[in-house]
Amino acid sequence: MNGSVYDELKERGFVAQVSDEDAVRKMLGANTATFYVGFDSTATSLHAGSLVPIMAMVHLRRAGHRAIAVVGSGTTMVGDPSGKSEMRQMLDEAIIRAQGQAIHIQLARYLHFDGTRAIAVDNADWLLPLKYVEFLRDIGRHFSVNRMLAAEAYRLRLERGLSFIEFNYQLLQAYDYLTLFRKYNCTLQMGGDDQWGNILAGVDLIRRIEGATVEALTFPLLTTASGAKMGKTAQGAVWLDPGQFSPYDFYQYWVNCDDRDIGRFLRMFTLLPLGEIRRLEALQGSELNEAKRILAFETTKITHGELEAEKARQAAAAAFGGKAAGTAAPTHSVVLSGVAAKGVAGDVTALPTTSVPRSRLEAGIAPAGLFTEVGLTPSRKEAKRMIEQGGLYVNDERVDSIERLITLKDLGPDGGLLLKAGKKKVHRVVPG
Hints:
Layout: H1 5-12, E1 17-18, H2 21-27, E2 34-40, H3 51-62, E3 66-72, H4 73-76, H5 93-111, E4 118-122, H6 124-127, H7 132-138, H8 145-150, H9 152-158, H10 164-167, H11 169-184, E5 188-192, H12 196-210, E6 215-219, E7 232-233, E8 236-237, H13 247-255, H14 262-269, H15 274-281, H16 288-304, H17 306-320, H18 322-325, E9 353-356, H19 358-363, H20 367-373, H21 380-388, E10 392-394, E11 397-398, E12 417-421, E13 425-431
Parallel strand pairs: 2-3, 2-5, 3-4, 5-6, 9-13
Antiparallel strand pairs: 1-6, 7-8, 10-11, 10-12, 12-13
Helix pairs in contact: 11-12, 13-16, 13-17, 14-15, 14-16, 16-17, 20-21
């Protein structure tokens, strides 16, 4: 790669704040640098918003730098107040450890931990054995309470109430940086922009104790063009775990993005060359659908593998028509997982599917009830409203009456039913 990968990160939109831009550009442009990002163990899965730091790590890893992913089981026991209006729920250590292990497995799909060029560690290993009084004496004495209270993360929480345990979070995160500097010569910490104060605290701690200069970089906190938080939908989070959010739904999340987000999302969430991204974002009108299909395919491939991405693409083609969902895998795909898309059927089997007893279909099911049951409508009342407006379909046939029953006679050639709500939501029902 010509020049510094820092410049590519900046052009792709990953840089919000940086401690010393010239120093970071030089660090990432010459010799191998060691950097880290922390992921607290607050759930069993990361979500689409977590792809911002993950993809930044992937770019640096591909450029030859050494990645350290810190699973924060130790800091999760305290709870990060940054960006939170109230204190996090305290979790049991066993739950935190289990969630941390699940996150470790997820991160391995992107970073391919080998113990040398990509390393995974858990900060519980060095934080939990700490002796509190010694920690306060050796580390806490370097922190100014006045300076900590001036940090945005703490200042915003003071009005609502900031617990003493949360007040310790910045010390622990700074100690993480010090530990990684000492053990791995880690000289760059990256994180979300709400972590700026915490990251700088680590930079300052290393300067005070070790007399060394290290750097900090933060990513922008993304919202979509519509103002929604990145990785959130009306139904909840867009989880990276396929058991919590299917590869098909993941594909649909990206293919249904706002036109205004296409270029930004292609830059941040795919590995496509910047020249190709500029071509795609220059498309106009209905041609933008090509860019959305490529975005959806590439992001799904990176997270779930090329086989699942192809299944999702084919399922969308079967559900919505080949042109709407894409008719061929992009020829410019960048392989991350090395999984080949073979043996994928152009059918609907990858769609979200619910099995209902055959006896219920024999008797007939009211459409408002079935659409609500499978999650296409939030309530029977809303389903009935959509029927009146002509927005519900069974196998592409509009449901024209709330009295119409869905029966075995509606089964398609594949032995199932395709239920559609509007133009974007689809669900398959099969008799069980």
